[in-house]
Specification:
The protein has 2 domains: 8-108, F-actin capping protein, alpha subunit (Ribosomal protein S3 C-terminal domain, 2-Layer Sandwich), CATH 3.30.1140; 116-265, F-actin capping protein, beta subunit (Aspartate Aminotransferase, domain 1, Alpha-Beta Complex), CATH 3.90.1150.210. The protein has helices at 8-20, 27-38, 41-58, 116-133, 217-220, 229-260, 262-266, 279-292, and strands at residues 62-64, 71-73, 84-87, 92-97, 102-108, 138-146, 156-167, 172-183, 189-199, 205-215. A 5-stranded antiparallel sheet has the order 6-7-8-9-10. Strands 3-4-5 form a 3-stranded antiparallel sheet, with no helix packed on it. A two-stranded antiparallel sheet has the order 1-2. The protein is globular and about 75 Å long. By secondary structure, it is of the alpha+beta class.
Length: 294
């Protein structure tokens, strides 16, 4: 039976699944491997660009705008159109190249919304929380994503938090993502956190965990008095912090137990020296001893 040769389109379709599953910080490595397999850059660019767009927005990729210091989160929540995204913090709209992961053509953009003051205050509070509780590389943003009927004022505020920690020299990379939606009218606050860590020294182990959050409505409450925006933002971030801390503590407890039970049974115990055995050196000692007795 002869082998069936796959078309370039079929190869790209299969490769797309690998790309969407790329661990944090390793999408370029996966792309380069795919590029070598496809061996058709023109077809690859056409077929893979929509996949990269999905990956970048779902993973909350961060990018630095020209002539700015802070990072901007790429997501469907701050998308202006197919090629442009809005950074409400720097008040700019820019073009983003999903293939090369670069931002260009940044232009001034002023949000026309009575909720802009609230967004800015919440953004400042969330940014402070992210910088204090996540390692270097944490970024955050608060942007409006919904409006009432017939042009009514914005009712939904979306908060994004992403923290990347890459340590390829130690064979691991990780990413924290959390998305919170706040209903300003009802006071309802819901969130979802997603943690992925990839460890690949002499193997391939991944932590992939998701947690849904629902904050009690009376814990924050609806925003009734606009003069209390700062207090509202403080209470909101307090509830986000409490929920995310509980999740992180639960993760720590769970994987500490796994390390002492299941994982311990999967690895060879170290000798009393607590160092890995150099089997090549032991083999040389054995050969030397045998030669000495001849």
């Amino acid at each position: 039976m002869s082998d069936v040769e796959l078309s370039v389109e079929e190869k790209i379709k299969i490769a797309s699944g690998f790309l969407l599953s790329s661990p944090p910080g390793e999408v370029n490595d996966v792309f380069n491997d795919i590029r070598g397999i496809i061996n058709n850059d023109e077809a690859l660019q056409v077929g893979i660009t929509p996949v990269l767009e999905e990956y970048n927005t779902e993973q909350l990729l961060t990018v630095t705008l020209p002539d700015t210091d802070g990072a901007v989160i790429i997501s469907k929540h701050n998308r202006a159109d197919a090629d442009h995204f809005i950074d409400p913090r720097s008040k700019q709209i820019f073009k983003f190249d999903h293939l090369r992961q670069i931002a260009t053509d940044a232009q001034p953009h002023i949000a026309e919304s009575s909720a802009e003051e609230l967004r800015a205050v919440v953004d400042e509070a969330v940014s402070k929380y992210a910088s204090e509780h996540f390692p270097e590389g944490a970024d955050s943003g608060a942007g409006r994503t919904g409006a009432g009927h017939d042009g009514d004022d914005v009712q939904i505020l979306t908060i994004l938090i992403v923290s990347n920690k890459y340590s390829p020299q130690n064979f691991w990379n990780g990413r924290w993502r959390s998305i919170w939606t706040v209903n300003l009218a009802s006071g309802e606050v819901k969130g979802r956190a997603h943690v992925v860590v990839h460890y690949y020294e002499h193997g391939n182990i991944q932590l992939n965990s998701t947690k849904e959050f629902t904050v009690p409505t009376d814990a924050v409450g609806p925003l009734v008095d606009r003069s209390q925006i700062k207090e509202y933002a403080r209470q909101l971030v307090k509830q986000i912090s409490t929920s995310e801390k509980q999740y992180q503590f639960a993760l720590n407890d769970t994987y500490t137990q796994l390390s002492e039970s299941i994982f311990k049974g999967l690895r060879r115990n170290l000798p009393v020296t607590r160092n890995k055995i150099d089997w090549d050196k032991i083999l040389n000692y054995k050969l030397g001893a045998e030669l000495a007795h001849k």
